[in-house]
Amino acid sequence: MIRIVSSILIMSSWKNKIFLGDCLEAIESLGTELQSKIKAIYIDPPFFSGQDYTIKKKGVASGKNAASLTEYDSYSDVWDGGLEAYLSFMNERIEAMKPLLTEDGSFWLHLDSHVMHYAKVMLDRIFGYENFVNQIIWKRTNSPKAQSHGFGSQHDVILLYANNAEEFEAKIIYRPHDKRALRPYSYEDERGRFRLIEIEAHGIQRTQNRKQFEWRGRTAPYLYRKETLDKWWNEGIIYTSRNGRYSKKQYLADVKGIPVSDLWLDIPPVQGASAEYTGFTTQKPRALLKRIIESSTDEEDIIADFFVGSGTTAVAAELMKRRWVVSDISELAIDILQKQLLDIQNSDDEKDSPWMYEIVDS
Ligand SMILES: C[S@@+](CC[C@H](N)C(=O)[O-])C[C@H]1O[C@@H](n2cnc3c(N)ncnc32)[C@H](O)[C@@H]1O
Predict the structure, then answer these.
(1) N or C end of the chain, less CB within 10 A?
(2) DSSP string, 212-234
(3) Which residues line the pocket of ligand 1, CB cutoff 6 A?
(4) Where does a domain end: 193, 220, 254?
């Protein structure tokens, strides 16, 4: 039995959807309504970890126990039929999700080392090896647990596939310069901080039959044509060193930041003290979903998460003005999601976005 909770977006008659139940049933109940309409699907399913998960909530007791945290069962990641049962569960559901994607859509599968290699093979078969885009490493903790065997695990893996690699375009995301990246910007003039970019060939570049020519009193194997160098000179972005060598100035203000690669070391996990903490053990940080949503969708696009847990994807999508469809089998998880959506509705940022909920039994 599937219950649907919908929230209405002001911009159109579109209804965001929360399905409570097995995501396979949720997808089946959608029929063809969203076929080829979803721009990105992110899923963070059970990892085949062999653990049962709980959620920590403030106790309702009074007196000295009032503020203590009580643990409630949230979901189980123990599989009676072992790995085979897990993989067949995932395979059936991911196969059902694929037709929902737009031609230029993308699929993001969040796992860790337990089964990620089996999942890679499964996704190569479902989406096609040629549609594999990235294996993203997300550093999920700074303090891995000590292991009696091997090394402490510090990262999760997100496998990214395009529905059709020829159509899919991930937007480049820039992250702010950190201390290390700022180090080369040690020069300064009236326009601000800058670093030096070589304009002469060095090492192997020199040996590639590069012709030397004279420019402004210095003969060198320049990497650029004379006209380009003249243009830069007139723009005032050529730096002359004390020994008469030229370089190009790159101003910090002109650089957007550092392009994000497949190594995501800069997004910390959700901590107990953080404002977004819900007590849901496997809650992912909003910043992680924001990065995924930003790189793969535009405003008003639809994003889906069929194992939404505490609701991170829906909350991030809502804050980023995307439409969304989510599901989870746990009533507790959906309660947490609804509470977060209410908080957004009541927050100062979202005063103009009237939220309505309806619970539909199907
Ligand atoms: C790792 S958690 C997701 C955490 C989520 N990304 C977050 O930030 O809170 C996995 C979720 O999958 C849900 N789940 C397990 N089996 C499911 C199924 N068949 N259909 C839908 N959800 C399922 C669990 O209830 C759990 O909430």
Answers:
(1) N
(2) PEEETTEEE-BSS-HHHHHHHHH
(3) 22-23, 44-46, 75, 280, 282-284, 306-310, 312, 327-330, 333
(4) 254
